[in-house]
Amino acid sequence: MNSDTKEDFTDSWWFLGICAAVAVILTLFAFS
């Protein structure tokens, strides 16, 4: 149970990280 919860949490962080990276890239392009 602990392992599964940790795995889901890690996946969520990966998803958030990707979304943040995309947002930053789009922002840089918008202002350049």
From TrEMBL:
Record keywords:
Membrane, Transmembrane, Transmembrane helix
Taxonomically, which superkingdom? Answer: Bacteria
Which positions, given as ranges, span the membrane?
12-31
Instruction: Indicate what this protein is called per its UniProt record.
Output: Uncharacterized protein
* Species in which this protein is naturally found: Lysinibacillus capsici
